[in-house]
Amino acid sequence: MSYSKYVWRKRLILMGAATVLAACKNATIANEGMIENFDSAVYADMIIINAKVTTQDKNKPVAQAIAVRDGKILDVDTDEIIHQYRGETTEVIDAKNRRVIPGLIDSHSHFLRSGLAYTRELRWDGVPDLKTALNMLSEQASRTPKGEWVRIIGGWSPWQFKEKRLPTIVEINKAAPDTPVYIQYFYSVGMLNQVGMDKLGINRNTEDPKGGKFVRDSHGTPTGLMLAQPHPGIFYGKIAALPDTSEEVKVNSTIHLFHELAKFGLTSVIDAGGGGFGYPDGYSVAEKLATEGKLPLRTSFYLFTQNPGKELEDYHNWTRGNKAGTNTDSTKEHGFEIDGGGEYLLWKAGDFENFRSDRPVLDADMEKDLTPIIELLVERRWPFRIHATYDESITRILDVIEDVNSYKPLRGLRWSIEHAETIGLNNIERIKSLGGGVAIQSRMVFLGDDFSERYGAEKAKATPPLRMLVDKGIPIGMGTDATRGSTFNPWLGLHYLVTGETVSGRKLYESSNLLTREEALRLYTVGSAWFSGEEHIKGRLSKGQLADFAILSKDYMEVPLEEIKSIRSVLTVVDGEVVYGDGDYQSLSPKLEPLLPSWSPVKFYGSYWP
């Protein structure tokens, strides 16, 4: 089904028109069992049969089949019961005894920013060895046109490679002698080849930026290796200097990224803004797609201030002109919404997750500057999220929130601490008493080895304290922090929650700090829905819930632990519409425009190995 047909069908539904017959006839569709003389008012648009449905509804935890009508779950039950909802135009899809789960929700990502550059980036996500990674770099450099760069930004770790190390500058220069290259490992290390340094005018006279360092040779000339110590501003500046592209390419890139997310079973994302990604200009591409009904996943987003020293001014302007929770998607509920402020409310309150450097100490006057921002957001009922990696930072941030709450009560306003790798029991209790949540991510899959090397294996055993967080009963969501940090692959995170393993295979956690498969899935579905205020309508498969779900390539509940990482979706449904299909269901998948630009690394390597 093309995106134009997809949009038109949804608009007909929203106007109360009759259900349109599905365009694709050659999918795996069952044709038996239509019930005659059944009340047409309850015919389904789609039914899924012969499935192993994990509902996450405690009243009916498992089922065989699902009925969908007008973007909502009509019923979840046995095949026999669900067949009663079949009408002449009902699309009937045989799951062939596959596992069906509620659609995954990434509670902390940066996909709106990532979408603008996705098709122009080379991804090392999942690449098993450095030799392969460097060959990819060399091949891509040879096809990248003059004036463009090879960009490898996030989603990988040196610990994933067989060699267990970063590439050297010599290796990068050899792989790409004539094409500028920028490579970034999380917010710890950046690398430029010689052509890239020449393009940016970096030489022995270039001074180190505040909080960053150019590694230099014996003559004082930068080698191309850049370190955050601990501030990643040195990387933000380099990314901002890379060439821009046309709106046509950005639109194409965003659609292809969101289609790729659906491939992994994601149906909703919550975007946490990001450095160098300002509002409203940075959001215009996604806004355009949403208003045209072409953004395939439900998207909530928070506004991240870009102006150190002027953060309060930003939030005054944003809260005055925007009501939190306003949906601008033309075809689906909760399709594209501003949800509040964050993850950076104040640059002085930011502690970066660079475990190759010392823990950053927040500015002494941080509390004074954060207080009026929290006051404003509470007054204007804007939910907020705030980045905090270390327990020491969380303590000071909670001091501010508790103080504001004493004279401007939160009264149920949603707010959360983001990341919280070293959070302790006392601060967990404080968050609970204030009605807040904690959004965690798969960052330790990539950074756990660095953390262990610096702080020791003992301290790494509870980074974060998963079991304690779950048992305390506070809202917890799971996400990726993709794509400049972790990979966007949610299954790596689900594997980590149940095994405690990093990309190197190092086991960080003892069994006492691991979750069950059911608990991990809950964090990635209804748990994450709390952070957009939607836990009452999505994250479960039960009557009245939004019809967002995925049929999986492997049975998450039963496969060996190691195979969890390789799970994909074979059919992803959002708002009752297929947004991704593969294998038996490929004919149901929306047809995308060819990748732009023509030399896109995604065209040659995809976005995730293999």
The percentage helix is 25-40%
- Looking at the structure, what is the overall shape? globular
Summarize the main sheet. 6 strands, mixed
Query: Low-confidence runs (pLDDT<50, min 5 residues)?
Result: 1-38
Q: How far apart lie the N and C ends?
A: 27 Å
Mean pLDDT: 94
Count the strands?
Answer: 23
Rounded to an integer in angstroms, the radius of gyration calculated over CA atoms is 24 Å
Strand order of the largest sheet: 3-2-7-21-22-23
Strand content: 15-25%
SS content category: alpha/beta
What's the number of helices?
19
Write structural notes for this entry.
With 610 residues, the chain is α/β, with parallel strands linked by helices. Helices cover 31% and strands 18% of the residues. The protein is built from 19 helices and 23 strands. A hairpin with a 5-residue loop joins strand 12 (212-216) and strand 13. The longest helix has 17 residues, at 247-263.
Short summary of the structure?
The chain has 610 residues and is of the alpha/beta class. The chain is built from 19 helices and 23 strands. Helix 17 (490-499) crosses helix 18 (517-529).
Properties at a glance:
single chain, six-stranded mixed sheet, disordered N terminus, 19 helices, 610 residues, globular, 23 strands, five-stranded mixed sheet, alpha/beta
Give the helices and strands, then pairings.
Elements lengths: L2 H12 L31 E4 L2 E3 L7 E2 L1 E5 L2 E6 L1 H5 L7 E4 L4 E4 L1 E6 L1 H5 L14 H14 L6 E4 L15 H7 L5 E5 L3 E4 L1 H7 L11 E5 L5 E7 L4 H9 L5 H17 L2 E6 L12 H8 L6 E6 L7 H11 L14 E6 L24 H14 L4 E5 L2 H17 L7 E5 L5 H9 L3 E5 L1 H13 L1 H4 L5 H7 L3 E4 L10 H10 L17 H13 L19 E4 L16 E6 L2 E5 L19 H5 L5
Parallel strand pairs: 1-6, 2-7, 8-14, 9-10, 14-15, 15-16, 17-18, 18-19, 19-20
Antiparallel strand pairs: 1-4, 2-3, 4-5, 7-21, 10-11, 11-13, 12-13, 21-22, 22-23
